Amino acid sequence: MDKTIQELTVMVKKFCEERDWDQFHNPKDLAIGISTEANELLDIFRFKSDEDMKLIFSDTDKKEHVEEEIADILFFVLRFAQRNHIDLSDALLKKMQKNAKKYSVEASRGSNKKYNEK
Hints:
The protein has six helices and no strands.
């Protein structure tokens, strides 16, 4: 069931407004939410080998845990953007254009170095 970013944003907005959460969703607290949830995702993979990580995705319960954490991150990102009038599609497109200049195909193919590293 594919949803657009706009449809997901409206769903999150409605969910939060029904619970009167606007008062708690300032930029700082939403940014903290993004970070906290991202760290919960990171914790799943801490000290795991490549084989361990493959097993996580082959185990239904463990994969569901990963899905829940990534959904929590998305929830906070959508809510942050909605509350602060950020068009996520536009923001991503602009950032990808900047990244294309920083990371040309010729200079970046097969390399994990930052654009300013040699």
